[in-house]
Amino acid sequence: MKHSRLCTVIALAALVAACQPKGEAEDPAAQAAKKPVATEAAKKPVATINGKSITQGEFDAFVKQVAGRAVADLDADQKLHVLGAQAEKDGLDKKADLAAEIALTRLNILQQAIATKYLEGKTPTEQELKVEYYAQVAQMSRNEYKARHILVPTEIAATQILERLKKGERFKALAKDSLDSSSDNGGDLGWFSPASMVKPFADAVMALKKGETIAKPVQTQFGWHVIRLDDVREVQPPPFEQVKQQLNQAVRAKKFRAYSDELRKAAKIEKKI
Questions:
Q1: Is residue 220 part of a domain?
Q2: Whether the Cβ atoms of residue 223 and residue 152 lie closer than 8 Å to each other
Q3: Is 92 inside a domain boundary?
Q4: Collapsing DSSP states into helix, strand and coil, what is residue 230?
Q5: Domain CATH for 230
Q6: Mean pLDDT over residues 120-133, rounded?
Q7: 63 Cβ contact partners less than 8 Å away, ≥ 6 residues apart
Q8: pLDDT at position 29, please?
Q9: Could you give the count of Cα atoms lying within 13 Å of 208 in the half-sphere of its Cβ?
């Protein structure tokens, strides 16, 4: 959780500050006389900050100093409150990076709260779920594809591979030089839907016939591809009942998104940058 992590960062920062030596060094003999004998548990490190190991005993002493009570007497919420209060006292919440994270966490919590409030009593109806289901089915590709590819950094290298394929060299053998992890399997990508691939690659695959290799290399953000389509199969969409939970989440998300858009249109926003 972000709140817990934030409190931990603040607390450890305050703890390091509390553990730093102040004033003139005291006589070692006097220090030894004042220092209680540490138990094994007290010697156990609970954190390391900037290379300095913080022991359980030091942490307990810090909490007792701030709260006036032993750590064992505090529950988890009280510990967080004590550490948070000390952090605010030390002005850590005013630091730019922590202040920004606190503000972001606050906004996220408020957004979740308003979403929960708005969606109360707005459980999607069976009809709404079916409308969403058929809308998603209409967008799905009815085919899956099985293809191989060879990924290289330049168009020249890809064109040279195409020339070697035309001369009879085997695709699997040439795929060993591919930059993609599929090189270990002869460039085989297995079965996939077009939606799972970047658009230029998916478009090139869908334009091929079974057993055909592209005439020209295809460029994506990963490099240049030489592609061969091995097989095509028709797929059926999952049954309505099987994806009902996902549809429910999708419909609720759309409802809140529409509500957010209305608020944004109605809001008066002045940009400073």
A1: yes
A2: yes
A3: yes
A4: strand
A5: 3.10.50.40
A6: 92
A7: 69, 70, 71, 74, 79, 82, 83
A8: 43
A9: 29
